[in-house]
């Protein structure tokens, strides 16, 4: 009986492991060639952050939806980068150790997702 209680307590403690390890937000660094561009980060048709001038970074909330990075600079063509939302590393351990409870918590908060932390974009000259 004691082992069963300890096991249940351990599973409950591991629930939301990605939330604890990787958090619900993430910093994205945007570098452009040439530097000095204005970039916006769009998700589901809404701008969630602006970086001006580049290089620079923005702190964003993680979700299961991809982010489109759109950069402009006078004398250069607009350039875009699709930053896919992928599974965070702690998600797999959470599923194995914490079962469905931990994964459900992380999925609801977005903690089981992550984006590329560094984005490099080249703007072609006009």
Question: How many domains make up the 3D coordinates?
Answer: 1
What do the pLDDT scores average to? 79
Oligomer: single chain
Instruction: State the secondary-structure class.
Output: alpha+beta
Would you report the number of β strands? Answer: 9
* Distance from first to last alpha carbon: 73 Å
Strand arrangement, major sheet = 3-2-5-6
Major sheet characteristics: 4 strands, antiparallel
Quickly count the helices: 3
Question: What percent strand?
Answer: 35-45%
Radius of gyration: 19 Å
**Which spans have pLDDT < 50 for at least 5 consecutive residues?**
5-20
Question: Fraction of residues in helices?
Answer: 25-40%
Secondary-structure element pattern, one letter each: HHEEEEEEEHEE
Descriptive tags:
single chain, 126 residues, alpha+beta, four-stranded antiparallel beta sheet, three-stranded mixed beta sheet, 3 helices, 9 strands
């Amino acid at each position: 009986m004691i082992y069963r209680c300890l096991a249940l307590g351990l599973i409950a403690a591991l629930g939301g492991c990605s939330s604890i390890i990787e958090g619900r937000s993430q910093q994205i660094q945007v570098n452009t060639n040439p530097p000095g561009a204005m970039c916006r980060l769009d998700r589901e048709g809404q701008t969630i952050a602006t970086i001006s001038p580049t290089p620079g970074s923005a702190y964003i909330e993680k979700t299961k939806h991809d982010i489109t990075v759109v950069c402009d600079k006078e004398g250069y063509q607009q350039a875009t980068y699709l930053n896919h939302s992928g599974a965070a590393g702690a998600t797999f351990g959470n599923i194995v150790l914490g079962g469905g409870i931990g994964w459900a918590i992380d999925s609801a908060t977005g903690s089981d997702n992550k984006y590329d932390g560094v984005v490099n974009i080249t703007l072609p000259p006009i």
